[in-house]
Every structure is written in structure tokens, then in C-alpha cells.
Amino acid sequence: WLFGGRMMKAAVVTRLGRPEVLALRQEPDPEPGEGQVRIRVAAAGVNFADILARMGLYPGAPRPPFIPGLELSGAIEKIGAGVAASRVGERVLALTHFGAYAERAAVPATQAIPIPQAMSLEEAAALPVNYLTAYHMIFRMGNLQPGERVLIHGAAGGVGLAAIQLAKIAQAEIYGTASASKFDFLRQLGVTNLVDYTKQDFEAEIRRMTRGEGVDLALDAVGGKSFAKSYRLLRSAGRLVVYGFSTSARGKSRNAARAVVEFLRTKRHHPLNLMRDNKAVIGVHLGRMGSRAQVLAEELQALFRFYNEGRIRPHIGKTFPLAEAAAAHRFIQDRKNIGKVLLNCAV
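The structure corresponding to this sequence follows.
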């Protein structure tokens, strides 16, 4: 970033560790460089990746001090060289490589995507990471077909609710794991095949519910032993999509040893065994899609169409002020959220 003289408020990871390492600080305003725009941020999405980055468990995260955050919404207030002046004032969302927990952010103009007129800025901030992840898993990588069974772990979370809405569009049969306190909400969405992962063995329960047949697609961001159980639940031609490793971040302090233990518990899949089992294991990481930006752009436009048709709606569970970013992290780590958690950056 090239900095100007003005200052802005930002939530900064001052060192690696517990949520309390997040502090509200004054930081220089980012100046948009060539081909960039500066966005006055309205809201920033809070994701589990932000928590892992704060704990030092997210590959590629900057060293402290840094501003976390991978998605935001707001209005373009300044442009760099080579960007059309008409873009000033546009309401946009953006995927960022960190830096979203702030009053302003500079991003490449191509990453600032105009949002539908009917979409609120809060909904826009809740869309990129969760819905692009779910869309990419279900439609592109998972190829979910009408009538197939899909198992969604963390069904009441941000990605989980997005996956439920998209799996309905795919006309799939939905199974979900969540804590029992969230069952009533999920049932209101029409999801009745539910397992309380805090008290029940989801592998045994899903096998019982499906009369021993298993599922066609499993979406798993838990990791460790959960990956192995999800794989065993796949029937022939089944697909396991892994897109996170939340089990490595149990508790609120940084614990590299725990992460190593959970990594070692993760089942390895030999190609010949996959061939024998007639199953697939698929990895999804939006942060590593930089070379396929056009794919994400097409998927985002598909999501906008679904939104305009009334087929998807982001559910915002709770919004915290920017100054309370640490509380937002605790809220997610305590598994209290239903749907998306946002930071209000218009302070």
C-alpha cells in the first residue's frame, strides 16, 4: 500500500494468540495505486480463516501486526490511475488478501464487484467467502445432482447455511450436523435430517438415517478424524470436499502442538485406494484461486442471479462494531453463531 496523510480506524492483530490480541488502532489511509480503488468499508465478514490467521495457523497470513479480514462491502470513494472515474460511488463487494477489518481498504479494481440494487451492504459482506465456497463445492467441484444426498457439517454456520440454500437449488437430499440448540432454526429451513455432533457419532447416525447406504457428497471443514468418518460415509461414486481444518483451533489460544496432532490424525488417501473405492477427495481453498479469477467471477454472477430470483438470502446472525472484533472472534470460536458474523466498519 501507498499511504496518504489521513488516518483510519482498523482492528489489528498485534501479536499471535487469543482474541484479545486484536486491538483497535489508528492506521494510515491506503492510497489506491494504479488499477486500484479505495473502498469506504461498510461491513467486513468474519470467517474462521481470520481466527486461524490470528492464531498463526493460517498458511500465507502476514506476520503481526496486520489487519485481518478477507471480504468486505462498501462504496468506492477514490480511484487509482487507469480506473474509470465513473466507478466512484459504486456499491461493491470485494474479496481481499487481508485488510478488511478497517474503515477503508484498497483493492484491485477488478476485485471490486458492483452488487445488485436490491442487495444491502450487509448482505453483500456476507456473500463472497461463504457463498462462493459453497457454490464452488456444490456445483463445480462436487457436481451435486438432483436426488443425491449431501452431508453438510456445521450446517448452521455461514458456509453451512449457504450450502443448504444451494443444495435446495440442486434438488438434493440434505443431512446436517449442528448442536441441538440450532435444530429449530434449521428445521424452519426444511432440514430435518440432523445430527447433534456434540453428543452423537455423526457417522453412525447418518448411516442409520440412510439405511446403511451413506451419502453422495460430504462437505467437511472440521478435519482430523471427521475427514475419515465423512469418507467412510460416501457410497460408490461419492465425493468428499474438504475446505477447512477447524479442529486445529479448538480453544482460543495458539497451540501449534494441537494442530500437529490433528494433522497427524488426518487420513491419507493413496490414489490406488481411491480408484478401488470409486471415491474422490477434493480440496477447496478460495484463497488459492487467484489464477482462476474468471471462474470466481462467473460463480459470483450466478449467485447474484439466485439472489435476484429470491432463491438465496444471506442470514446475518450477529453484527459487532469494529472495535469489538475480539468479541466477534470469541463468538465464532464458542460456536454461538447461526449464519454470518459481520463487523460494522462504518464507525
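Residues 9 and 26 are 5 Å apart (CA to CA).
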